[in-house]
Each structure stands twice: as C-alpha cells, then as structure tokens.
C-alpha cells in the first residue's frame, strides 16, 4: 500500500486560527477521565522525551521539575527515580489517584487551605503543603506534553506567562506540540504552529526545534485527519 501522507518537511498549516474560539471546560476534561476517553495517555511514556532526556537534564542532579496538566504521565516517575523532585498539576483527581496506584506509590493527600477545592497528593510524608505554595514559584525544568496543546487557544498567553514565571535562571523547557490539519479536527489537542510558539515564548526564550516525527496512530483516523506530526522544542532563557 502506498503512503500518501505528506513528508516530514510539511509546511505549517495556514488556517490555524480556525480553532481559536474553541473552549473545553474543566468539567469536560474531568468527564474524559470518567468515561475513559484518555487516548492521550502514553503507557510507555513519551519516546521523544526518552531520546532527549540527557539533553534535558544536562547531567544536573536534584532538579525541580514541573509537569503542567500532568494526567498520569509515567515520565513523572522517570525523573523521581533519578532523584529529582517532581510537581504535577492536574484537574482530575481520578487521574492523580490512577498515577499513584499504577506506579505502586503510596501517597497522602491534604487540602490546600489557600486554594479552596484543591488538594496536594504527595509521596514524601515530611512535605508540608505550605512549602509547596511557597516554593511553587521556581523550577529548573518544565516538561510540557499534552499541556499547551490542551489549553484553550484563547488562554495560551496567560498559560505560557505563568509557566515562564515559574522558572529559575538557567531553565530548560521541553515542549511537545502537534501539527495536523486543524480544519479537520476541532481539538483538543489543539494545533500549535511554529508562529504561535514564537509569539508565546519568543521574547523571553531561545527556541530550538529538536525534532519532528510522524505521530500518526490508528485512533487519529476517527479525528478525520490523515497525518499528524509531533514536534519537540527546547526553550532556554534568552
Ligand atoms: C491531553 S492530557 C495530557 C496529560 C499528560 N500531560 C500526558 O502527557 O499524558 C491533558 C490533561 O490536562 C488536564 N487538564 C486540562 N485542563 C486543566 C487545567 N486547567 N488544570 C489542570 N489540569 C487540566 C486534563 O484532565 C488532562 O489530564
């Protein structure tokens, strides 16, 4: 069978603004977990992250690593097992509990008094949620996969400004986005073209596209698309 999908040199899709007014509520995200529409979860972890792990960590130890919109990403354990400290933020309590259960980690939970309706789930027991609030400001690394692409397009600038405000000097921010025809699938995940990454990060960061890979899977056929690429960007301080 011949493969008619575009080559990896494909240009960015011009009509990317078609998704700009699309909004998904937090309840809709929580519902995805309840109804098991979690095709985004990668049981084996992200292969691009695996490939660029050393580039990302730069041989440094004891890093604080932030996972925005973390789901039950197994990569959190990869870093914890290497001795780094990991903080993830996720709206679905179900997703968080599944992470700890599937990774065989016992955990404690306590409400964060300052932010009603939120809880901190943690593996180390001498950790005070007040410390989390006090220290959440600074991380050495961010792994952003399934996060910027899940943020409603109209909220992207606010999101990326918060992400950048959380970073320490000398940070590395690894960002995975998806490239597909946005007129065929409403998202999420949303299409985030190169120009958008420049707009969001360009003033503060050097932006390097490390790799672009064919990410097409069977499940993508139901989205009405016939190609999808994953692009990995390394963002560093200007
Ligand atoms: C596409 S999934 C990606 C999860 C994870 N990063 C991964 O790579 O598997 C997006 C996740 O973000 C969560 N989410 C969406 N909006 C959120 C928000 N505003 N705050 C916290 N979590 C959110 C969803 O529940 C979902 O688990």
UniProtKB/TrEMBL annotation:
Family named by the database record: Belongs to the class I-like SAM-binding methyltransferase superfamily. TPMT family.
Assembly and binders: Monomer.
Signal peptide positions on this chain: none
Function per UniProt: Catalyzes the S-methylation of thiopurine drugs such as 6-mercaptopurine (also called mercaptopurine, 6-MP or its brand name Purinethol) using S-adenosyl-L-methionine as the methyl donor. TPMT activity modulates the cytotoxic effects of thiopurine prodrugs. A natural substrate for this enzyme has yet to be identified.
Enzyme class: transferase
GO CC annotation: cytoplasm
Enzyme Commission designation: 2.1.1.67
Any one GO biological process: methylation
Gene3D superfamilies per record: Vaccinia Virus protein VP39 (3.40.50.150)
Principal subcellular localisation of the protein: cytoplasm
Protein name: Thiopurine S-methyltransferase
Keyword annotations of the record: Cytoplasm, Methyltransferase, S-adenosyl-L-methionine, Transferase
Catalytic activity reported: S-adenosyl-L-methionine + a thiopurine = S-adenosyl-L-homocysteine + a thiopurine S-methylether; mercaptopurine + S-adenosyl-L-methionine = 6-methylthiopurine + S-adenosyl-L-homocysteine + H(+)
Molecular-function GO terms, alphabetical: thiopurine S-methyltransferase activity
Compartments where found: Cytoplasm
Organism superkingdom: Eukaryota
């Amino acid at each position: 069978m011949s493969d008619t999908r575009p080559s990896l040199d494909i240009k960015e899709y011009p009509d990317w603004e078609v998704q700009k007014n699309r909004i998904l509520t937090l309840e809709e995200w929580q519902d995805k977990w309840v109804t098991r529409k979690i095709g985004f979860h990668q049981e084996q972890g992200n292969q691009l992250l695996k490939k660029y792990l050393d580039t990302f960590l730069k041989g440094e130890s004891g890093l604080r690593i932030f996972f925005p919109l973390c789901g039950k990403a197994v990569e959190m354990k990869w870093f914890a097992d290497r001795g780094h400290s990991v903080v993830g933020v996720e709206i679905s309590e179900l997703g968080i509990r599944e992470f700890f259960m599937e990774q065989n980690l016992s955990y404690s939970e306590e409400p964060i008094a300052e932010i009603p309706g939120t809880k901190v789930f943690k593996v180390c027991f001498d950790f005070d949620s007040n410390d989390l609030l006090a220290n959440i400001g600074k991380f050495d690394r961010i792994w952003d996969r399934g996060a910027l692409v899940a943020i409603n397009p109209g909220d992207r600038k606010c999101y990326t400004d918060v992400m950048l405000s959380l970073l320490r000097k000398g940070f590395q921010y690894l960002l995975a986005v998806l490239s597909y025809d946005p007129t065929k699938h409403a998202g999420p995940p949303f299409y985030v073209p190169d120009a958008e990454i420049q707009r969001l990060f360009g003033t503060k960061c050097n932006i390097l596209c490390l790799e672009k890979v064919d990410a097409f899977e069977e499940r993508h056929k139901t989205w009405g698309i016939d190609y999808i690429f994953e692009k990995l960007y390394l963002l560093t301080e200007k």
